Amino acid sequence: MDFVGYAERAAMLANTPFSSVDEVRAHLADREWLVPQVTERDVRALQRFQRRLRTVFENGDAGHPDGAIGALNTLLAAHRITPLIVPTDAAGTDSGRTASGWRLHVADRAATVADLLVAESLMGLSILVCDLGPNRLGVCASSTCSTAFVDTSPNHSRRYCSDRCSSRSNVAAYRARKKAGTRSVVRRRPTEGDA
């Protein structure tokens, strides 16, 4: 089970606005078997979850570990997770094979699409926070972006959601410094002694 992948999916879930079944289906494009199961009920449940999920990332980013853990615990209490162990063959793919022949699913067969996405998010974030700490949850430092992300860098140095936001911010900062430097250079007027 890829808990870091689930944590990263949680960030994607926090960042993706859902106002229709089609938008949830587009979000699940890489998981074709879930697409036909999406209902209006899933859309409403995911919208409610997203608002509360965002708080986990914001607290982690702000350096408030107790706030991040508190928000995550509140979500865990509100969304009971019902994991299920199944044979790897039942998953329908060979890529999920394990040495034992069994795999853990984070939701049982009765789970709705929203239940499954919520369970994946909460399990991924819980394991990540316990293993690496809540400071690995971030919000993009760019002034024009508010994308949530999971920092899996070895030295915990990630500040931006993407290389694109990092580059834009660096270019903007460089231009601002250059502009400020131009203003601070005072041109001296020539005097009579200059020749």
Automatic annotation (TrEMBL):
Q: Which residues form a coiled coil?
A: none
Taxonomic classification: Bacteria, Bacillati, Actinomycetota, Actinomycetes, Propionibacteriales
Q: Which SUPFAM superfamilies match?
A: Jann2411-like (SSF160904)
Name it: CGNR zinc finger domain-containing protein
Question: Could you tell me which residue ranges the Zinc finger CGNR domain spans?
Answer: 136-178
- Domain of life according to the entry: Bacteria
